[in-house]
Structure formats: structure tokens, C-alpha cells
Amino acid sequence: MKLLIFFILSLLSFNKVNAQTEITTSEIKDHIEFLSSGRMKGRYPGSKENQRVVKYLRKDFRSSGISKMGDSYFQEFNAKLRVKKGVPDTPVVKTWNVIGLIEGSDPILKNEYIVLGAHYDHLGMGGPSSKSPDTVAVHHGADDNASGTAALLEIAEKLAANRSLLKRSILVMAFGAEEQGLLGSKYVTSHPPVPLDQIRLMVNMDMVGRLNDSGHIYMGGAGTFSKGMELMKGLGAEFNLNPIVHAGEVGGSDHVSFYKKNISVLGLHTGGHPQYHKPEDKAALINIKGEKQVCDYIYKAVLTLSAREEPIDFIKQD
Fold first, then answer.
1. To 10 degrees, what angle do helices 148-161 and 25-35 make?
2. Residue 174 and residue 146 in contact, taking contact as beta carbons nearer than 8 Å
3. What local confidence, expressed as pLDDT, does residue 166 receive?
4. Is the pLDDT of residue 1 over 90?
5. Distance CA 185, CA 137 (A)
6. CA 177 – CA 43 distance, rounded (Å)
7. Is the pLDDT of residue 195 over 80?
8. 315 and 233 Cβ atoms separated by less than 8 Å
9. Above 80 in pLDDT, residue 235?
10. How confident is the model at residue 275 (pLDDT cuts 50, 70, 90)?
11. Phi, psi at residue 193, to the nearest 5°?
12. Cα–Cα distance, 200 to 315 (Å, whole number)
């Protein structure tokens, strides 16, 4: 009987560890449903719901074996909120970036960093950035950007489980207040946890939950580092994806803040849709299986770039 109990406990332990090494549709779904639920009220900066999300991210970082940067996962900053045109009173609220570290295994290259990032905030109950400007309702932000946040957590979990395969280190960053003007990424690039010249690449995921039937994953910035175009196109077939890869077209999300600091970037998304910045951007519309394909693709790209011997040097694009 004792031997049987030991065997069962060992099997359960193995399954738990094994689960951490794979990206799963169930965990993607759970993350998105939590982040975009009505009780999160659109994850607006300065709200108690925003604070709940930050704590959720910290808990997941810890359980995945992602280390703190210094003495905390949190990087606090003040966000000046957007208001309607003509409104003179612009509130300033406290919010956070959530940052963790997966250290590489190479004694030299581990001092170079790849940032894997996504923003976790959204529009709350609407406001000036809403595409339904006269509607006061929860803007769920399932695709924008619960999908990117879920991808961040799942990819980072798998990278942490396979850290022995990494040469360069990975900085995992969940940005606050992106919808207020890329404020979280602007703050972190002005107050970096490591010297900026040691950050070789920033990979950003913003709206990766609506993969279409053609398998289109769109990205800009692949020409900001050598052989980026070839890599990102070449990996598509392995994951049944049809990458639409641009050398430049660096704009629209948190990777812009890094590009402006002369850091190579990749900004990935699965395309726009009619629910963008509206209350109807809900979890039911997410292509969960498609997001797993995207996550596996990005994981392979990050793993490959972390391990490559060739330098990752910045190439400016027009």
C-alpha cells in the first residue's frame, strides 16, 4: 500500500512538472476569462481591479519559477489618464509594470537580455479611447490585451521550465497603462531594470487571440535585427501559420518605446476586428486553439534567438 501511494504521488508530481513545460489551451482560456471577466471592469489603471490583476500576474510569475528583478516584481509609476477633449482636469493614478527574470545559462550571453512583453490594462468602462464613445459599459478587452497577457504568462512559463536551453536571459514584462499612451513601456525604458545597452531585443504581443482561417500572424520590426525576416517567415510552417512579416512598420504598441531607444523589436498581432475598443471584445470570440499556435510560434522564436551565437544588433528602419 505504501508503495502504491508513493507511486501515485510521484505520478502526480511528474504530471505537474510536465504540465509546466507545455503551453496549454486550458491555461490560455483560464487566463483570458479571468482578465476579461466583468468583475475586472476593464482593468483600468488606478482601480482596485487593476491591482487585482497585478497581484494575479505576480502569483503566476512566482508559480512559474520566474525570479524577481531586485527585491520586487513590481515597478510602480504614476499614469496621467486620458480625458475627453476640452476636459481640463487630468487625473494621475498609481499603477505598475510587473517584471520578472529568467536567467540564461551561458556565462557570457546571460548578460544580454530579450524582453518578452505585453500590456495587461484596458479601457475600464470606456472613455475617450473607446470606439463606443457614448457607452458606459465594461470594456472587457479579451483580445486587447488579455490575449497578449495570457500568451506572456504561458510562453514565460515554458521558457522558465526550459531555462537550461536559454543562453541569453529573458526579461518578462507586463506593462501597465499602455492604453493611456504606452506609459508603462515608456517608464521602463527610462528606468530600466538592466542597462539598456544589454537589452538586445523586445518581443511584444498585443492582440494575438483572433487568428483567422488563413493562419495570419502579423508582425513589424523583423528587419531591426539580422536574419529576422528569414527566421520569422521560416518558422511559420512548423506551426501551421502564415506569417505576414514586415521589416519596419514599427508602431502602435509598447515595442515602440524600445525601438526609440535603438533596441531591436518584434511587434506581433493577429489583426484588427469590429470589436476593437468596444465592450463586445469578449472571451467568447477568442480563438483559443489559434492562440496556442501563436504562443508555440513565439516561444520557438524567442528560444532560437536566445540561443543563437550571432549578435543581435539594432538595425534602424525607415
1. 140
2. no
3. 98
4. no
5. 27
6. 10
7. yes
8. no
9. yes
10. very high
11. -75, -20
12. 11
Q: What is the DSSP letter of 195?
A: -
**CB neighbour burial string for 261-291, b if at least 16 within 10 angstroms, e if fewer:** eebbbbbbbbbebebebbbbbbbeebbbebb
Element (H, E) at 118: strand 113-119
C-alpha pair distances (Å), 43 with each of 36, 64, 124, 177 = 8, 23, 6, 10
98 is written with which cell numbers?
510587473
H or E element: which one contains 293? Answer: helix 288-307
Domains defined along the chain, listed by start: 22-307 (3.40.630.10)
Phi and psi at residue 45, to the nearest 5°? -55, 135
pLDDT at 257 over 60: yes
Burial class (CB in 10 A: 0-12, 13-18, 19+), 29: middle
Q: What is the pLDDT of residues 290-317, one digit of tens each?
A: 999 999 999 999 999 999 999 999 999 9
